[in-house]
Write a structure and sequence with these properties.
Elements lengths: L1 E7 L3 H12 L4 E5 L5 H6 L1 H18 L16 H26 L2 E4 L2 E7 L2 E6 L2 E10 L3 E3 L15 H4 L8 E5 L3 H12 L3 E5 L11 H13 L3 E3 L3 E5 L3 E6 L2 E6 L2 E4 L3 E3 L31 E3 L10 H15 L12 E4 L5 E4 L3 H6 L3
Parallel strand pairs: 1-2, 1-6, 2-3, 6-16, 8-9, 8-14, 9-10
Antiparallel strand pairs: 4-5, 5-6, 7-15, 11-12, 12-13, 17-18
Helix pairs in contact: 1-4, 1-8, 3-4, 3-6
Length: about 375
């Protein structure tokens, strides 16, 4: 089967590109090995925000008296129902994306695609028992959780964001390794659920990509709520009962029934067959130009895989830019003013460069 455009990966970049390409008359095929929506919809942004909204409602009820509202009984929660609502929301949104792709005329193929090379001027792809050919290829294969080589980590049943979203248990204590956006959002949720939370961060402040003054204000707010923060700290070892942390003043042990690993994500570049097309890769992902082209003129890389901005809305915009370029347009990608939000309670947000970035550049 021959297509104008093939897209590998059905996350925000992939499904946005597929719908746009098909709407504009391109014969389009989208390959997805798991579920359309990608990490964001299935095990990232959407399920996390759904849980956080339940926590926000709970926190609001608990603090209602401050606003003159009387609640007769003590606020409580049903963890199974909270997670059931999360699952229902995800299913509904996934179904909506599938319907949107169908309505646009894009063909979705469930399975893991492999690049075989080029033949007669077309890119050859295998998925299952079928072979596909396309003129242009979009790589929207996303990212995966970084698992650092911490002593003892492979001997404990640690969580990544995927396991934390499954809702199988509510530990008495939780050590979160990494105080970035994902780590802080989970810290917020589990703190509201009554879990004793400790956040361990190597940098001098949490939320490294955000404004430092705002981040410090959020940290102070959560310290009042009972979260322990360990900044400028390195995890030396993990055991089933505690986490060994190296600080400037010495080594300490932090009790933790469960460990949540949240030190970042890395682009997925292996196992796809990129070498068959001589696609260049770097430590951060697949390098691209302002049109999201790789070093191969008919291969584009959008979303987390290019390592530029690991955000769903950035990925969606990149997918649109790539398709516009394939259609002959001169739409260019800009990363100058990308909004970022941390959905804690309170929330914080920013757009563009931080004060620290501007100061470092002398601006």
């Amino acid at each position: 089967m021959t297509f104008d455009i093939a897209i590998i990966g059905g996350g925000p970049a992939g499904y946005t590109a597929a719908e746009k390409a098909a709407h504009n008359g391109l014969k389009t095929v989208l390959f997805e090995k798991n579920s359309v929506g990608g990490v964001c919809l299935n095990e990232g942004c959407i399920p996390t925000k759904t849980l956080l909204y339940s926590a926000k409602v709970l926190d609001g009820i608990r603090s209602a008296a401050k606003y003159g509202i009387s609640v007769e009984a003590e606020a409580s929660f049903d963890l199974k129902k909270i997670y059931a609502r999360k699952n229902k929301t995800v299913r509904k949104l996934v179904a909506g994306i599938k319907q949107g792709l169908t309505n646009a005329g894009a063909i979705t193929v469930q399975g893991e695609a492999q690049i075989l090379g080029e033949k007669d001027g077309l890119i050859e792809i295998r998925c299952g028992e079928e072979t596909y050919f396309c003129k242009d290829l979009l790589l929207c294969i996303g990212s995966e959780t970084i698992v650092p080589p911490i002593k003892g980590l492979d001997e404990v049943n640690f969580w990544t964001s995927r396991e934390a979203l499954e809702g199988n248990e509510l530990p008495a204590s939780l050590a979160i390794i990494g105080g970035g956006v994902i780590g802080m959002e989970f810290a917020s949720f589990f703190n509201s659920m009554g879990v004793k939370v400790s956040v361990i961060e190597m940098l001098p402040e949490i939320l490294g990509v955000m404004d430092k003054e705002t981040s410090a204000m959020l940290r102070a707010e959560y310290a009042k709520k009972g979260i322990d923060f360990h900044l400028n700290s390195k995890v030396a070892e993990v055991t089933p009962e505690y986490v060994v942390v190296e600080k400037e003043e010495g080594t300490i042990q932090i009790p933790a029934e469960k460990v949540l690993l949240s030190v970042g994500r890395k682009a997925v570049v292996n196992g796809l067959g990129l070498e068959k097309l001589s696609i260049e890769t770097s430590r951060g992902g697949i390098p691209t130009n302002e049109y999201l082209q790789t070093n191969h003129p008919h291969v584009y890389a959008c979303g987390d895989v290019n390592g530029k901005s690991l955000l769903a809305h950035t990925a969606a915009r990149e997918g649109a830019v790539a398709v516009n370029h394939i259609l002959g347009g001169d739409d260019k990608m800009s990363y100058e003013a990308i909004p970022g939000v941390v959905y804690t309670n309170p929330e914080i947000a920013g757009v563009g460069k931080t004060e620290e970035e501007l100061t470092a550049k002398g601006e």
